[in-house]
Amino acid sequence: MLEIAPSILSADFAKLGENIKTVEQEGVKYLHIDVMDGLFVPSISFGMPIISSIRKITDMVFDVHLMIESPERYIEEFARCGADIITVHAEACKHLDRVVTQIKEAGCKAAVALNPATPLNAVEYVLDMLDMVLIMSVNPGFGGQKYIPYSTEKIKELKKMIENKGISTLIEVDGGVNASNVVEIMEAGVDIAVMGSAVFGGEIKANIEKVYQTIKK
Ligand code: DX5
Ligand code: ZN
Fold first, then answer.
1. Which of 65, 35, 89 minimizes the C-alpha distance to 192?
2. Crossing angle for the helix pair 16-25 and 204-214, to the nearest 10 degrees
């Protein structure tokens, strides 16, 4: 069954704790946390102090998406702040295999994200070391962008690669996911769908319930 991972990038930061409690009360398991450095992506979001603070108020799975250059500089620190899953971009790592090992040694689940234009073979040889692959369905950097249609084909191909290897790596999709395309994405083989504006834009409870109804959860 598809899980959703609300992205706090679209939350109201003046009410961040309250917003997180609302999604938790709706039975959501994952919280997607977007860290941006203004270098790998154009924008800057937030970092360790925010993650440490919200770690104290919830046991949800912290899915930390690092949109930062050379993420190996900060893996242990993000693990200490309370990350459960750490996702690094293949495009941001000179030594991807080494960074994946570093994430696991820090006690976290390891995931690799691929930008829309990055081919799947960027993760082919490390696939069985990974707990999850994140397919970016927008160019990373901002919430509220439009889903890039070719992402669905990419998800299907990744699903085939995983099945052919007989492994259980999860597939996550991030960017432009909402109630109108979530079924297509789920049927393509996604396990976890990140949703920023579709969850935090407007009435949070109603938004989640609409998505759950659409996917019959
Ligand atoms: C984009 C971020 C996303 C973003 C998704 O760079 O990685 O996680 O918050 O937001 P929506 O769901 O609004 O596209
Ligand atoms: Zn993200």
1. 65
2. 30
Cα 161 to chain centroid distance, Å, stands at: 20
Structural class in CATH, domain 3-216: alpha beta
Does the annotation mark 34 as catalytic? yes
| Interval 70-108: pLDDT, tens | 999 999 999 999 999 999 999 999 999 999 999 999 999
pTM: 0.98
Distance of CA 65 from the midpoint of ligand 2 (Å)? 5
Strand partners, 192: 3, 172
Q: Which helix (H) or strand (E) holds 105?
A: helix 96-105
Question: Does residue 55 contact residue 62 with C-beta atoms inside 8 Å?
Answer: yes
Q: Which residues are in the CB-under-5-Å shell of ion ligand 2?
A: 34, 65, 174
